[in-house]
Specification:
Layout (H helix, E strand, L loop, with lengths): L1 H38 L2 H21 L1 H7 L4 H10 L4 H30 L2 H23 L3 H6 L1 H17 L6 H25 L5 H27 L10 H4 L11 H4 L2 H11 L14 H25 L7 H31 L1 E3 L1 H23 L6 H35 L2 E3 L3 H13 L14 E5 L20 E5 L1
Parallel strand pairs: 1-2
Antiparallel strand pairs: 3-4
Subcellular location: Membrane
Keywords: Ion channel, Ion transport, Membrane, Transmembrane, Transmembrane helix, Transport
InterPro entries: ALMT
Length: about 475
């Protein structure tokens, strides 16, 4: 009895553990599914669209008149939907057009090859067909090594090889080769048309729009890092230099966002290739300069590589003396903050398709901070005996200078994109200009008090000056020039 009881308990324990394992598996899958749906609801819609397309083409089997017209060839419509329907409109159109044109061309060549093979007699027909298959398959496969064909027509070349081989080989034992080719071509075209219509007219996902938003998002990620770099590196609170959103990020995830930019090349190139297949939609017309987006994305990645090196300076085991870091702290924070603001304005301009003049203001401010840093280094370096100690901070400063140059190149490339696509020009407000003027003047030099015991010079520009001492006679140069008198 004890043995039977222990066996029953063991069996119950296995069933209980199995139930808990199954329950945990279901809960885990459900949690991941809900997360994917919340991250991008378009994924759920895409799944429903694929189900709708497959259900529609399956009617070819269920309705006898359609099945009698196409027979077993209706399976090609189902296969076409499975392999052609992609997430974006551009990818679906690209695959659909590639499949349709490749099937048409391969079917025509297959029928022609079959006709020529029959002229060689019953014994020579298999040999001639084999030669045709060898030549066309080898030539088509070699064409896939060309970059232009690989990028846009690779799928079509594969379908061409498959269709030509099937039509030519199956036609050897088929009496009605033309009927066979017509059935396959018709069902493939119908399946492709169903995919393209549903993809375009039911909640479309445009590859061009995704590429446009991706470029802006990458710039925002770099801007997040630059705006928060100063406070993190110098380990102090600089609320005036960071945006409110950055100040609330206690998890410091904004310092890691740039990492996704480093590996965005493949995604950008894929979206650009798909976008070229898409029709006009929104602000995107035919012959939209998608290559310019790739150029901007390449410059953004170059900037992210320098930011990656700058990120290493934050957690480096070797740090510069606090006295030296305090000397360069203001200029470095100004450089990173203003360059981050410039990138954020560029991202906002790309999203809204506008050209903002405030970008030039932020870039000018970062350059002025670079000049201040140069002056500080010239006056501070001779006082430091050990140059190895200040090298980490000097490296961070040099990286900031390189980043500012990269941002200038990004701004020029975005302006070129704006000119090509006719971005709306938004001039900077007068208030912004008035705020920047005194800062620019203060960066240019130092005003010293006038020594009354020494001779001095008064300069007048375009009219009498209120600062001129009484009794001083100033002569004005014709043409609005400046004149001087000395005491």
């Amino acid at each position: 009895m004890e043995v039977i009881g222990s066996a029953s308990h063991e069996k119950a324990g296995l069933i209980c553990r199995g139930w808990w394992w199954f329950k945990a598996l279901v809960v885990g899958v459900a949690t991941k599914t809900m997360k994917l749906g919340r991250d991008d609801p378009r994924r759920v819609i895409h799944a429903l669209k694929v189900g709708l397309a497959l259900s529609f083409v399956s009617l070819f089997y269920y309705f006898r008149p359609l099945y009698n017209g196409f027979g077993d060839a209706t399976m090609w419509a189902v296969l076409t939907v499975v392999v052609v329907f992609e997430y974006t409109v551009g990818a679906t159109l690209g695959k659909g057009l590639n499949r349709g044109l490749a099937t048409l061309l391969a079917g025509a060549l297959g029928v022609g090859a079959h006709h020529l093979a029959t002229l060689s007699g019953e014994k020579g027909e298999p040999m001639v067909l084999s030669i045709f298959v060898f030549i066309l398959a080898a030539a088509a496969t070699f064409s896939r090594f060309f970059p232009g064909i690989k990028a846009r027509y690779d799928y079509g070349v594969v379908i061409f090889i498959l269709t030509f081989s099937l039509v030519s080989v199956s036609g050897y034992h088929a009496d009605k080769i033309l009927h066979l080719a017509r059935q396959r071509l018709s069902t493939i075209l119908m399946g492709g048309c169903v995919c393209m219509i549903i993809s375009i007219f039911i909640c479309p996902v445009w590859a061009g729009q995704d590429l446009h938003n991706l470029i802006a998002l990458n710039m925002e990620k770099l801007a997040d890092f630059l705006e928060g770099f100063g406070g993190e590196y110098f380990e102090s609170d600089h609320g005036d230099e960071k945006s409110a959103s950055d100040g609330s990020k206690s998890d410091k995830s904004f310092l890691q966002g740039y990492k996704s930019v480093l590996n965005s090349k493949a995604t950008e190139e894929s979206l650009a290739n798909f976008a070229r297949w898409e029709p006009c939609h929104g602000f995107f017309r035919f012959f939209h300069p998608w290559d310019q987006y790739l150029k901007v994305g390449s410059l953004i990645r170059q900037c992210s590589y320098r930011i990656e090196a700058l990120s290493d300076c934050i957690n480096s085991d070797i740090q510069a003396p606090l006295e030296f870091k305090k000397e360069i702290q203001g200029a470095c924070i100004k450089m990173s903050s203003e360059s981050g603001k410039a990138l954020r304005e560029l991202a906002s301009g790309v999203r809204t398709m506008t050209q903002k003049g405030s970008i030039d203001i932020h870039i000018a401010n970062s350059k002025n901070a670079t000049n201040d840093l140069n002056s500080i280094l010239k006056s501070t370096l001779p006082k430091n005996a050990d140059l190895l100690q200040i090298m980490p901070a000097a490296t961070a400063s040099a990286l900031l200078v390189e980043i500012i140059k990269c941002i200038e190149e990004i701004a020029e490339s975005v302006n070129e994109l704006g000119r090509s696509t006719k971005f709306k020009i938004v001039d900077p407000t007068l208030t912004a200009l008035e705020k920047q003027q005194p800062q620019t003047l203060l960066h240019r030099g130092i005003v010293n008090p006038v020594d009354t015991d020494c001779p001095h010079i008064f300069i007048e520009v375009d009219g009498p000056s209120d600062l001129s001492p009484p009794g001083n006679v100033n002569s004005k140069v014709p043409g609005g020039g400046a004149s001087s008198t000395s005491n």
